[in-house]
Design goal:
Number of helices: 12
Structural class: alpha+beta
Number of domains: 5
Radius of gyration: 44 Å
Length: 675
C-alpha cells in the first residue's frame, strides 16, 4: 500500500509498524465521519440550549407586566421622615396633604410590687387576661369583643415569679411578661402586645390558693381591675398607659390604636416614627417610573430574544456561514409564535383606546427588533393607565364597585360578560331564645359549638355579673374565638344582643357557613337563651347568578363562570340581585407571551424533545464508535496473524536461499579446480 514504509532486513519485517499504519488508514475515514456528525449534533443541542436560556430570560422579564401593579403604582413622600413615612398602593389618590404627628400609640405596662427573688412562690389559681378600653372619667372598663380572652392555670409547677412569667409568654395570650430588678427587688411586668387605648389590660384571679381573689396576697397580688380600689383587685401599678396615636391630616384630628395607620387616606399606609415639631407635607402621586422601567425592560428583553433568533438562524453572505439552527423548523415555530403574540390586537379590549403595542409607542423595526417612543408611552401612562395594564396583563374590568374581579384561567375566553344575580351570599347564624340574666355562675358557664363544621372544645365563661348584655356578648364572642381549633381553621364569629336574645353569626359566607350549639350548661336555657334544644340555626347561602348568560357556580361570595367565561371568578361584596353590569376579561400581550414561552419551555414541547432526539443521536454515534473499535481490533488481530505467517514463510525462503547460494558456490569452486 502506498505510504506504508517497510524496513525489512532479512526476515526482520517491522510488523507492529506495518499493522498500525494499516489499521490507522482504515480507521481515519470512518472516525472523521462520526466526529463530524457528532459535532453537528452537539452544535444543534447547544443552539437549542441558547434558545431555551433566552426564552427563560424573556419570561422573567414578562413577570412584572402581567399584573396591574406596575401601571397603578403610587408613591407617598413625607417631608419629615423622622415623624412619618408612608407607602401607597394602586388605589391611592394623588394629592398633597398637610400632616402632623401629635402622639404615638403605646401599649400598657403593669408592674407588680417588689419580691426578693424570681424564684419566690406567689400563689396558685387561674389568671384571666382581657383587653378593652378603660374610661377614667366614668371609671368603667369595656371589654373588646374582637380580642381573645386567655385563662392560664397557675399551679405548683409554675407558681413562682419566674414560672408565672414563663407561663404567660408561652401562652401567646396577647401579653408579654418580664422580670425587672429596679433596685428595690424583682418586679413582674406585664405588657400588652398591641398598642392603643382599646388594648388596656384587665387581669382577674379565680381560685386563689392564698386568700381571696382580690386581696393583696397569694396569686391575687397580680390582679388588676382598673375600676377597683387599690389593694382590692387593683394590685398592680401602671407604669405606662395604653394610648392611641393622634395625628392631624389637613386640619382633621385622627386617632388610631397603632402607629401603622391605614384607611385615613385611601390606599396609603402611614408609619408614625415620632412626634413632629410642626406640620409637614405628604405628597401622594402616580409613580410612573415603575411602569416606564417595566415597559423598557420588556422592549430590551424582546430585543435580546430577537438577537438570539437572528444569531441562530441568520446567514452571512460574505462568509457563507449560516447560523447553527438555520432553517430549523422548531426555531421557526418559536419565532413566529412570539412575534404573532407581540403584534396582535388584544382581544377583549374592544372600545378601549389602547389595544396594541403600537398604541403606546412600541413598533417593530427592520430585523424584527422593537423600538420605544418614550413620549408616547408617557402620554399613555398619564391618560390611560388602566388600559395600559390591560394591554399587558390579565385584566378584569367591572362596572359595579361591589363586584371585584378575582382571576381568569387559560381556558377563559376574552370578552364582555353580563352579570345577573339571583341570590346574594349570606352568613350562617344561631338566634338564641329570650335571655333573662346577666349573671354567669356554675349553672350556665359552659358551652361548646360547631362553627362551619369545626367543633370547639368546651368553653368556660367567666363567672360574674356583667354590666350589660353587650359586655356579656363580648365575653361569649371572645371565648368562642379563643378556641384553638377555630383559630387553626381560620374561623371566627360575631356575637351581638338583639332586643331580648343573643345572635351568634359566623364570619364566613356561603352554604358551608353554619352554627349549632353542641352542648350548654343546664342553666343556659333559661338565663342566656342558648341551648341545644332552643334557638334557631340558619345556614348561609352561596351567591347565585349568571355570567355571560350561562349559570355560574357560587361558593360563598365568589361566582365562577362557565362556558366561554369558564373559570372567570368575581367576588360579590354587596349590592342587590338583578342586572349588575359587565365584567370585561382580556389577556394582554405580556400574558399571552408568557403563555407562549411557557408552552415552548414545557418538558414535553418540541424544543425539549428535539434536544432529547439529538442527544439520542449522539448516543448512537458513541455506539458506532464502539463498534468501529471492535472491528478494527478484529482486523488488527487478523493482520498480525497473517503477517506472522508471512514472516515465517519469508524466513524459510531466506534459509533456502542461503542454502542454495552456498551449494552453487561449492559447485563453482569444484569446476574451477577441474579446469
Amino acid at each position: 500500500m502506498a505510504g506504508i514504509a517497510v524496513s525489512g532486513i532479512g526476515s526482520g519485517l517491522d510488523l507492529n509498524g506495518l499493522v498500525t499504519q494499516l489499521i490507522t488508514a482504515q480507521a481515519e475515514p470512518a472516525t472523521r465521519t462520526i466526529n463530524s456528525r457528532e459535532a453537528g449534533f452537539q452544535a444543534r443541542i447547544s443552539g437549542y440550549g441558547s434558545l431555551k436560556s433566552a426564552l427563560a430570560d424573556f419570561q422573567t422579564t414578562l413577570e412584572g407586566l402581567r399584573t396591574p401593579a406596575s401601571f397603578t403604582a403610587r408613591s407617598a413622600i413625607s417631608n419629615d421622615g423622622s415623624a412619618l413615612s408612608a407607602a401607597a398602593d394602586g388605589t391611592a389618590v394623588s394629592g398633597v396633604y398637610s400632616a402632623e404627628v401629635n402622639q404615638l400609640a403605646q401599649s400598657q405596662k403593669l408592674a407588680s410590687k417588689a419580691f426578693s427573688e424570681s424564684t419566690e412562690t406567689i400563689g396558685e389559681g387561674t389568671l384571666t387576661f382581657r383587653f378593652g378600653t378603660y374610661d377614667s372619667d366614668a371609671n368603667t372598663f369595656a371589654a373588646d369583643a374582637e380580642r381573645n380572652v386567655a385563662s392560664l392555670t397557675i399551679d405548683s409547677s409554675n407558681s413562682s415569679l419566674a414560672g408565672i412569667r414563663d407561663a404567660v409568654n408561652e401562652a401567646n395570650a396577647g401579653v408579654t411578661a418580664s422580670i425587672v430588678d429596679d433596685g428595690s427587688g424583682q418586679r413582674l411586668v406585664f405588657g400588652s402586645v398591641n398598642t392603643g387605648a382599646s388594648s388596656s389590660i384587665e387581669i382577674t384571679v379565680s381560685g386563689d390558693s392564698g386568700g381571696t381573689d382580690t386581696d393583696d396576697s397569694g396569686l391575687s397580688q397580680l390582679a388588676f381591675n382598673p375600676t377597683s380600689v387599690l389593694g382590692t383587685g387593683k394590685n398592680l401599678s401602671e407604669t405606662a398607659a395604653a394610648q392611641d396615636a393622634n395625628i392631624t391630616i389637613d386640619g382633621l384630628t385622627i386617632t388610631r390604636p397603632s402607629n401603622t395607620i391605614k384607611g385615613v387616606l385611601e390606599g396609603v399606609t402611614l408609619n408614625l416614627e415620632g412626634v413632629s415639631e410642626a406640620a409637614f407635607s405628604l405628597t401622594v402621586r402616580r409613580d410612573e417610573d415603575v411602569a416606564t422601567t417595566a415597559v423598557e425592560s420588556f422592549v430590551s428583553g424582546f430585543n435580546a430574544l430577537n438577537s438570539t433568533f437572528k444569531s441562530l438562524s441568520g446567514y452571512n453572505a460574505s462568509t457563507g456561514v449560516g447560523g447553527i439552527l438555520l432553517g430549523d423548523a422548531v426555531l421557526r415555530g418559536v419565532e413566529s409564535s412570539v412575534r404573532r403574540a407581540a403584534t396582535n390586537i388584544v382581544a377583549g379590549l374592544s372600545g378601549q383606546s389602547i389595544r396594541t403595542l403600537a398604541d403606546i409607542g412600541i413598533t417593530t423595526q427592520a430585523g424584527g427588533s422593537l423600538s420605544l417612543d418614550s413620549a408616547k408611552l408617557q402620554t399613555a401612562l398619564k391618560t390611560s393607565p388602566d388600559a395600559l395594564a390591560g394591554l399587558f396583563g390579565v385584566a378584569g374590568l367591572t362596572q359595579d364597585s361591589a363586584i371585584e374581579f378575582v382571576s381568569g384561567a387559560s381556558n377563559t375566553q376574552e370578552g364582555d360578560y353580563n352579570i345577573v344575580l339571583s341570590q346574594l351570599a349570606t352568613r350562617g347564624d344561631y338566634v338564641g331564645a329570650t335571655a333573662t340574666s346577666l349573671t354567669v355562675d356554675g349553672t350556665n358557664d359552659t358551652l361548646s359549638l360547631n362553627i362551619d363544621g369545626v367543633q370547639t372544645a368546651t368553653l368556660s365563661l367567666s363567672q360574674k355579673t356583667y354590666a350589660n348584655e353587650t359586655a356579656l356578648a363580648a365575653e361569649i364572642q371572645a371565648r368562642i374565638n379563643t378556641d384553638s381549633a377555630l383559630s387553626a381553621a381560620g374561623k371566627r364569629v360575631t356575637v351581638t344582643f338583639d332586643t331580648d336574645h343573643y345572635v351568634i353569626q359566623s364570619n364566613s359566607y356561603g352554604s358551608e357557613s353554619n352554627i349549632s350549639i353542641s352542648s350548654a350548661a343546664a342553666g343556659s336555657t333559661s338565663t342566656l337563651g342558648i341551648a341545644t334544644t332552643t334557638g334557631t340555626a340558619t345556614a348561609g347561602l352561596d351567591v347565585a347568578g349568571t355570567i355571560g348568560g350561562v349559570a355560574a357556580s357560587g361558593s360563598g361570595q365568589q361566582l365562577t363562570g362557565n362556558g366561554e367565561a369558564a373559570d372567570l371568578v368575581v367576588n360579590i361584596t354587596g349590592g342587590t340581585i338583578g342586572q349588575r353590569g359587565t365584567v370585561t376579561f382580556a389577556r394582554g400581550v405580556a400574558e399571552q407571551l408568557h403563555g407562549v414561552v411557557a408552552s415552548f419551555l414545557n418538558p414535553n414541547a418540541a424544543l425539549e424533545t428535539s434536544i432529547e432526539g439529538l442527544s439520542g443521536q449522539v448516543d448512537n454515534l458513541n455506539t458506532e464508535r464502539d463498534n468501529l473499535t471492535r472491528r478494527l481490533e478484529a482486523n488488527e488481530a487478523r493482520l498480525r496473524s497473517q503477517f506472522a505467517a508471512l514472516d515465517v514463510l519469508i524466513s524459510q525462503l531466506q534459509t533456502t536461499s542461503t542454502f542454495l547460494t552456498q551449494q552453487l558456490a561449492s559447485i563453482a569452486t569444484i569446476n574451477t579446480r577441474r579446469n
